[in-house]
Write the structure tokens for this entry.
Amino acid sequence: MSTHAVLEWRNGLPYSRQFDDVYFSVSPEHPQHGLAETRYVFLQHNHLAERWRQLPAAHASHFVIVETGFGSGLNFLAALQLWRDTAPANAHLHFVSVEIAPFTLQDLQTAHAHFPELAEASAALCAQYQLLQPGINQLELPAFSASLTLFIGDSADYLPTLTLKADAWFLDGFAPAKNPQMWQPYLFASMAACAHAGTTFATFTSAGIVKRSLQAAGFSVNKTKGFGNKREMLCGSWPEPAQPASKPLPKVAIIGAGIAGCSTAWQLATLGCEVHVFERAAQVATGASGNPRGMLYPRLNAEKPLNDQLAWRSYSYSLRHYAQLNLGEDGFQRVGLLQLGASPREHKRVQKVAARYAGLGVETPLLHKTTAAEASEQAGVQIAHECLYFPHGAWVNPVLACQQMIQQPNIQLYTGQAVHQLSRLPSGWQLFSEAGLLGQFDAVVVCNAAEAANLIPDSGMWLNPVRGQMGVIAAQPLMQGLRTILCGDGYLTPAHQGTHAMGATFAPGETDTSVRTQDNQHNLQMVSTLSPQFDQAVQTDIVFARASLRCGSPDYLPYVGAVLPLQPLIESQQLVTSVTDLPAPSGLYAHAAHGSKGLMTAPYCAAVLARRLLQDFGHALPQLTEDTFWLGLHPQRLLFKQAGWKPLLQPFQAQQTT
């Protein structure tokens, strides 16, 4: 498991104890020495200012930087500032960095204090620099039209897996003499694999082994004057003829404006796509996404690794995502969450989950087990059982979140427009309502929950509707001390604007959404079991209630990805042993079946889907998950199983049983 960097501060400068080297340097004569060196080595010798000014203003474009060694984030901040000053408004910067031992947030802020001119960029980064976990972490900075893909772990595990096309490399990290394990053949082979015409690199070192390795990988290498007292440094490029103009971004239709549809639209629009969202209702978030409050926490079982992996990645990503949407105190609050181990079965699960996952967070634990006494102190009310405590647990108003996301300038929303048919063209798709043609698009993402199977009946997606009813009760004296969300057989939130939210019932296969008195009573009875103080909760009046339908899949994982024309393959009984045997994506995608976890999982899955979709259209951007993980979410994974394509399923099954 990765740990944060162990620093030693010498005269205000951060030194790595592991590598006995400074992350950046300053001096009394030149307080901005470290920033000046970054600008000279990495920005100037990758010619970034000139290249960014020349990016096309007529259409959206993307620029990818890959860095070895995130460290204090100084290179990222300098690039972020220059990007905003020089790049067109519709361009997006993708900054990919690898760090085996990340700074804590406090250390990061201390380091950034040396460079007050970067304060705005630092604030944007630090607001997202939290809940980091080993592996891929995606941090969005929409105010700068940028994103940071931060891999926490060994660069040897990550760089060889990259499928992107890098426009520039920042070869940082500690010097070869201090950190020889990084400057190995895999690094230079990865650079070559990600190179295209125009790819550049720069590094502070001029070590002969680095120069020779770069040349052997195929780069042209120049030795030039180093910064300050450093005599020489290296820079260069990939020697190929000029490449053709970049492909245009696809025009995308989204069907459904719940949390899955709005999250997908926001991700694609943020990346520069023209997005059209079709919603049959009169406004967004009228289905399961229409509840006034929803919970953010990972429901873990420690027995299905892929399910838990999705939960962890979604949890950390969604907390950062909702925070940067600026929803206000009515839209998003981190109040912590206690998951109660009341029944013998739940108590056993609490023990298992705590043993496996406690301390997962790189900077601060994402969960820990508490005694009943500790839980009572955290909750502010009496708790009678051991709990799992999620200190970052939160509630979100999904309606406000959807409304905020759908306002992205590249999105056009059409309400009262039910899509009844999809028609494939030689290039693209047509959408039809009962009244006629709605439009033609390069790609379509079906996000309308249980109705998705009606639009794409050959997909093989099995969607089970589940009715759920929640309620809102007036704040009660017996609950006035409650400070955290409580989850047992249901949930109860702390009071906000004089009310608590509670829920929710679970009725698979039922589709009636009328409010039921018995369900209100069920929810009240559930609340009374959460704390010995709440024994009178069943006598509380309900001020609001609503029922809605969620839909799930047999393995409790969502359907996310391309819907492929598989029927000819299945009918021919052709053996499929790898993804390369499958048909190429045709521009049709699904994003559905989040069950009761969509508020948490949909933003992350939307981010993953958006980058995979653009990759299918020729834009090799940083990906947010491994291929095996992506395959585990495939909308047609049940068809794979039915067709007997076991070799295709093996990576997924291995993750599920590990």
Remarks:
- The first strand starts at residue 7 and ends at 10.
